[in-house]
Amino acid sequence: MQEADLVALSKEWAAAIVSNDAALISSYMADEWVIVSESGVSPKDQFLAMVASGALTHSAMQMVSEPRVQVYGDTATITARVTNTAHHQGQQFDADEWTTDVFVRRDGRWVCVLSHITSAQ
Checking DSSP bridges between strand 29-37 and strand 40-43, what pairing results, if any? Predict the structure, then answer.
């Protein structure tokens, strides 16, 4: 897979997150996926449960910088600045973050195993 294909995959996953469809979002994640943020480490099941319950929704997510893509055989990293609008427990959050996603190729397809977000402000 070329770098442009990985960027397209990342954008598809962002669109899935904005769809708030937990099953669709999950299709981009490995079972062991975690997200690391200022609040700690959250596993896939916890993240998807919040989406499925409606406690966490996203109405916008956009890559606003040129992504840095590095491919290391069957592993790839994508780092970019991303803005998003989320609602958690009914409260709106507008975020401007640096994100890094780590993808691995399994059974001929790329899945994300780790996402790391850091405030850009």
Answer: antiparallel
Q: Going by C-beta distance under 8 Å and a sequence separation of 6 or more, which residues neighbour residue 22? A: 48, 49, 51, 52
CA distance 101 to 113: 8
Token couple for 41: 């480490």
pLDDT of 50 reads 95
Rounded Cα gap, residues 10 and 24, in angstroms = 13
For residue 55, the 8-state DSSP code is S
According to DSSP H, which parts of 1-121 are helical?
3-19, 22-26, 44-53
Q: How far apart are CA 40 and CA 104, in angstroms?
A: 22
Alpha carbon 31 to its chain centroid, in Å, reads: 14
Write out pLDDT tens, residues 54-82: 999 999 999 999 999 999 999 999 999 99
Confidence of residue 1 (pLDDT cuts 50, 70, 90): low
Task: Find where tokens 């700690």 sit.
Answer: 40
